[in-house]
Structures are given as C-alpha cells and as structure tokens.
Design brief:
Distance between the termini: 40 Å
Structural class: mainly beta
Strand content: over 45%
Shape: globular
Number of helices: 0
Order of helices and strands: EEEEEEEEEEE
Length: 124
C-alpha cells in the first residue's frame, strides 16, 4: 500500500511563490516515477511536472521557467517550487507515483497512486 500526502498549498497573489511537498509513505523503490498534476474546476486533469525513472524532468509548456520539480529519494519526498504564479495556475494540485519503470512524461492513467490534493489559489 502506498500513501501520498501533499502539503504546501494556499492562497497567494500573482507573482508570488509556493512550494508544494509530497511525502510518499511506502517502501523505497529505485525505479519509481513521480509527477505533479493539477485540475481546475470544469477542466481535465493536466500534467504539470514529471520526474521519470531515470530522474529526467519534464514540464508543461505553461509552467516552464516558473516551476521546478525535485525529489529526495532518501526521504521518499517530491517537491514542486512554483514561482511567478499566475491566476491561471489556480487549481487543485495532486502528487502521483508509479513504480513501473518508464521514461518521459505520462498521462494520468499511467500513475497508480495519488494524493488527496492541495489547493493553490492565485489572485490577481
């Protein structure tokens, strides 16, 4: 059983920063891949940032240069540093993980484990 717990969401003005954290309560696997997704009301869940099994990182075009994904595998932790936030970044943010080996970003269906989400609200 894997449990993912996000934290760090909140409300911020445009141009501000937030740092999301995801704690993975599970055995440590060397080849797992993780990602941050977000979902705004009335919209589909979209991938924001990804770390694959080779520790390569990938970003959605909408957040490139503003968001940074990182992980601490010793702590089974995943982070998302979000800078220069915009109102369109407002959404519920979810941490996702999968222990199958894989390279590159994957759609939501390819992640087996999900956190409960943390809300990010950016006001103009």
């Amino acid at each position: 059983q894997v449990q993912l717990v996000e934290s760090g969401g909140g409300s911020v003005q445009a141009g501000g920063s937030l740092r999301l954290s995801c704690a993975a309560y599970t055995y440590s696997y060397s080849s797992y891949r993780m990602a941050w997704f977000r979902q705004a009301p009335g919209k589909e869940r979209e991938g924001v940032a990804f770390i694959d099994s080779a520790a390569n990182t990938f970003y959605a075009d909408s957040v490139k240069g503003r968001f940074t994904i990182s992980q601490d595998r010793a702590k089974n932790a995943l982070y998302l540093q979000m800078n220069s936030l915009k109102p369109e970044d407002t959404a519920m943010y979810y941490c996702a993980a999968d222990f199958r080996y894989g390279l590159g970003p994957r759609p939501p269906s390819m992640y087996n484990y999900w956190g409960q989400g943390t809300q990010v609200t950016v006001s103009s």
